Amino acid sequence: MIKQNKAAILNSAQDIIEMLQWEERKKTVKNVQLNLFVDLNDDEQKIFELLQEKLKMSMDEIAVTLQFPVSKTAQLLLQMELNGVIRGLTGKMYELI
Q1: Under the phi-then-psi rule, with left for phi > 0, alpha for psi from -120 to 50, and beta for the rest, what region is 5?
Q2: Which of 8, 26, 32, 85 registers the highest number of CB atoms within 10 A of its CB?
Q3: Tell me: the pLDDT tens digits for 24-79?
């Protein structure tokens, strides 16, 4: 079977890695250029200023504090996240990047 390449002699885990042609993936660090000047509309600016003050808040807390409907708050937060202004965390929490 070894001659027909259906079996192999293994001496270490490294032999398995080589046989399966697995290569160690090198971790690459991605440098992300943040936008220094992001154009925010008035409502986004209110959320931005609130998160500067509180650091982390849930979507519901933001909606209640600013007296926005939750649907509008969700839309604004998504747009800000796509623009790289904020980051979504677990539990519907948000923070500035």
Answers
A1: left
A2: 85
A3: 665 555 555 555 667 889 999 999 999 999 989 999 999 999 999 999 999 999 99
Q: Is 30 helix (H, G, I), strand (E, B) or coil?
A: coil
CATH number at residue 38: 1.10.10.10
Supply the pTM of this predicted model: 0.62
Structure token digits, residue 30: 């991605």
Q: How many CB atoms lie within 10 A of CB 83?
A: 14
Please state the rounded mean pLDDT for residues 11-32: 71
Residue 94 phi/psi, 5-degree rounding, is -135, 150
Q: Write the single-letter amino acid at 89.
A: L
- Closest alpha carbon to 81 in 59, 61, 66: 59
Whether 78 is covered by a domain: the verdict is: yes
